[in-house]
Write a structure and sequence with these properties.
Strand content: 15-25%
Largest sheet: 7 strands, mixed
Order of helices and strands: EHEHEEHEEHHEHH
Radius of gyration: 17 Å
Length: 196
């Protein structure tokens, strides 16, 4: 696809870069270091889009030459509890222990920001994870060190391949970016040269 405007991905996530690259986008990566705290009274489903917008507003200085800034944040939700990135391996273990054998929700919030407009939206995927023994959880945490992933696991790694038996929603959303929604939303930003 031909792009009429520069796209800036303000994320350190290699998975978001991979998803955009494999979808044919040309983009520049400019990571932002933004505090990922949120109000404790906030509805769980609102946390990810709130954080995505918070990141985008912190990166407004990157908006030159008609660029569009893309920021995102993913959270895992189970029983009204928000699971963000674990602080260390032990917290990752605890998170997976609580998620195993049950259904949870992955919400990835996205913010597209340009000088003339902004769009904030979310992808939502329901995920069913098999039961896991303590040895399996320890193997996963020790092997993959998932402290940079919401909920303490990556869908593209061992847990996703061996322990997730069902999803309702898109797989890229669980990886960290609802590419289908990003693709459509960019149409409203006069982004594509050869698409309506």
């Amino acid at each position: 696809m031909n792009q009429k405007r520069p796209l800036i991905l303000a994320s350190q996530s290699p998975r978001r870069s991979q998803l955009l690259r494999e979808s044919g986008f040309q983009f520049q990566v400019c990571p932002l270091d933004v505090d990922e705290s949120f109000p404790e009274t906030m509805a769980p489903e609102s946390v990810a889009p709130y954080l995505a917008e918070k990141k985008a507003l912190a990166g407004k200085h990157l908006l030159t030459n008609r660029a569009i800034l893309l920021t995102a944040d993913s959270v895992v939700i189970k029983g009204g509890v928000v699971y963000n990135k674990p602080a260390d391996a032990e917290e990752a273990y605890q998170m997976i222990e609580e998620l195993a054998g049950a259904q949870h929700t992955v919400v990835t919030g996205v913010c597209l920001l340009a000088e003339e407009k902004q769009a904030v939206f979310s992808g939502v995927t329901q995920v069913w994870m098999e039961e896991m023994s303590p040895e399996e959880i320890r193997f996963y945490v020790d092997t993959y060190m998932p402290t940079d992933k919401a909920g303490g696991y990556g869908a593209q790694e061992w847990i996703g391949l061996c322990k997730i038996n069902r999803m309702q929603g898109t797989y890229p959303n669980v990886m960290g970016l609802p590419v289908n929604l990003v693709y459509e939303a960019l149409k409203d930003f006069d982004f594509y040269a050869d698409l309506k």
